[in-house]
């Protein structure tokens, strides 16, 4: 049977909502640490443990690591670019002009090549590299777009010389071991060695029982999928970043193939991101969203995940109810 994985944050971090989620059959709660700190996570984890005592039941808590994120820098005022406009991306803040963007990945100039596509703001704004200089790239805007502060930068097809886990990730992992978490999700898993690295760290700290979930969300897992699945306890098809790294039309194919491979190896697999995105602000889903959940279930995903829908959405319980109904219908066939 396919189950529902729910993301924590303000929309559901109270006793009443947690009780309703438990009664609706939700058993895994995700703490997305790019948006959490340890203090707020501890408060919510303690609240969850109190609910567990009252209900006589158990939630599994999942800590989703931050990973080294590449971003633009703080802007006092957003910058609007027009299609075809040429501007610079710089890696030294003191070299930034009024219409330049600063990127906090210092090896960007070396790693990017002429004609490389750089995706800004989680893939909403594509620019093409047309010139390389010692301290900047000259890029061309492929669409008109307004860029705000601290936007995500994705570099599809470019190997980034970044560690899989930062010192903060290791510290957050230790936090998880001490506060009742049962799962750790490793963002941007690239190989089985990444998983083994984290597993060795847990073993050294006498917490080898914690399950490790590998998140598939960039290009570098291609060719390494078998070893990643073998090294992991669970797999997440993390479509949010995956679609910025790979051609959009290939994502359903990758999802289907990853699920199939996990089933062959008897490893649980989660399908995640934007499953009921419109229900963050609307009380009912689109037909396409219902179909997305339905076919994930028919492909034998073990979990379907709610992200912003339950973290910050207006209708978290309705989202869970919609998912339950679609899962039940799909599993009747």
Characterise this structure.
An 8-stranded parallel β-barrel has the order 1-2-3-12-13-14-15-16, surrounded by 6 helices. It has a 6-stranded mixed sheet with strand order 6-5-9-8-7-11. The chain has 333 residues and is of the alpha/beta class. 35% of the residues lie in helices and 21% in strands. It folds into 2 domains: 3-67 and 165-332, Phosphoenolpyruvate-binding domains (TIM Barrel, Alpha-Beta Barrel); 79-154, M1 Pyruvate Kinase, Domain 3 (Beta Barrel). The model has no long low-confidence stretch (mean pLDDT 94). The chain has helices spanning 15-23, 38-55, 108-111, 167-178, 192-204, 225-231, 239-245, 251-264, 287-298, 308-311, 316-332, and strands at residues 3-7, 28-32, 60-64, 79-81, 86-90, 101-102, 117-120, 125-132, 136-141, 145-147, 153-154, 183-186, 211-216, 234-238, 269-272, 303-306. Helix 5 (192-204) runs parallel beside helix 6 and helix 9 packs across helix 11 (316-332).
**Biggest sheet layout:** 8 strands, parallel, barrel
Structural class: alpha/beta
Q: Give the strand tally.
A: 16
CATH homolog superfamily of the largest domain? Phosphoenolpyruvate-binding domains
> Helical percent range?
25-40%
> Would you state the CATH class of the largest domain?
Alpha Beta
Gross morphology? globular
Our estimate of the beta-strand percent is 15-25%
- Given the structure, what is the number of helices? 11
Strand order of the largest sheet: 1-2-3-12-13-14-15-16
Uncertain stretches: none
Report the CATH topology name of the largest domain.
Answer: TIM Barrel
Corresponding CATH architecture of the largest domain: Alpha-Beta Barrel
- Mean pLDDT across the residues is 94
> What Rg is obtained from the alpha carbons, in whole angstroms?
21 Å
- The total tally of domains equals 2
């Amino acid at each position: 049977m396919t189950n529902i994985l729910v993301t924590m944050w303000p929309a559901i971090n109270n006793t009443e909502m947690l009780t309703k989620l438990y009664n609706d059959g939700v058993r895994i709660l995700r703490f997305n640490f790019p948006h959490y700190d340890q203090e707020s996570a501890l408060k919510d984890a303690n609240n969850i443990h109190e609910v567990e005592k009252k209900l006589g039941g158990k939630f599994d808590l999942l800590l989703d690591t931050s990973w080294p994120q590449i971003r633009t820098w703080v802007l006092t005022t957003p910058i609007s670019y027009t299609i075809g406009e040429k501007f610079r991306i710089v890696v030294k803040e003191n070299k930034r002009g009024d219409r330049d963007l600063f990127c906090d990945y210092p090896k960007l100039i070396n790693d990017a090549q002429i004609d490389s596509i750089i995706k800004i703001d989680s893939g909403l704004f594509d620019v093409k590299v047309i010139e390389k200089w010692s301290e900047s790239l000259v890029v061309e805007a492929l669409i008109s777009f307004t860029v705000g502060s601290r936007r995500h930068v994705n570099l599809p097809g470019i190997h980034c010389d970044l560690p899989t886990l930062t010192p903060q990730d290791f510290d957050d992992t230790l936090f998880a071991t001490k506060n009742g978490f049962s799962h750790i999700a490793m963002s941007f898993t690239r190989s089985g060695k990444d998983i083994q690295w984290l597993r060795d760290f847990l073993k050294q700290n006498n917490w080898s029982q914690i399950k490790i979930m590998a998140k598939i969300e960039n290009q570098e897992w291609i060719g390494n999928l078998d070893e990643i699945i073998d090294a992991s306890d669970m797999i997440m098809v993390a479509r949010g970043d995956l679609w910025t790294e790979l051609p959009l039309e290939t994502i359903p194919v990758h999802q289907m193939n990853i699920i199939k491979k996990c089933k062959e190896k008897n490893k649980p697999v989660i399908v995640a991101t934007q499953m009921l995105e419109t229900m963050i602000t609307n009380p009912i889903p689109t037909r396409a969203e219902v179909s997305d959940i339905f076919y994930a279930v028919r492909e034998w995903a073990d979990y379907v995940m709610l992200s912003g829908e339950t973290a910050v959405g207006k209708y978290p319980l309705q989202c869970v109810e919609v998912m339950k109904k679609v899962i039940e219908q799909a599993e009747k066939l």
